[in-house]
Amino acid sequence: MSYSSVMKTCVLLAVMCLAACAQSPQAIRVAPIFPEPLKMSDNKSPVHVRVSDQRTNKVLGSRGGAYRDTAVITLANEGLSQPLEKALSAHMAAMGFDVDSLNPSTTDLHVIFTSLVYNHPKEGGVGHDMDMQATVEVEAVRGNEHYNGRYRVKRNQKFFNAPSDAENSDLVNELVAEVLNSIFADSKLVAFLQNK
């Protein structure tokens, strides 16, 4: 084997190794799947649902890899507000609420996303860690009555290899569903929504 053949083989192997370390950017479509809801409102309490995206950073994080600064994870074009308003409204309707009612005693439920993070930290180590965090603030208003709450989910998950596009999408949607479900663990908010 000649010297040039050995060099070509070495260069080819180096390029393949670098390519294996690279991750491409990913845009995730938000479509959370909620668990089967508990019936919370037997009297069809009227609620109007709004979702706002007030995150200061629209990038969820990095997939990691050799080019972590360009291997970013973002949301698809429609963002958070529109798909989550539909999903949360359907979930609350399944709970027994009268969603988008024209009743004058309707509670306006405004869910505000202030953070959504899905990021591979810079530190190396064994495995592939993903840090996940979601924070929402809730403003519920009915006439002169108000209720405010803040809800947060934070966790870290370790993988043997970098998660695939499908795994990333599933994990982000699970995180979104989890933080939205945590709202309904607040008994004071639920009582306010039920007008009790």
From TrEMBL:
Signal sequence extent: 1-27
Keyword Signal: yes
InterPro entries in the cross-refs: Uncharacterised_YajG
The entry's keywords: Signal
Top-rank taxon, per record: Bacteria
Name of the featured protein: Lipoprotein
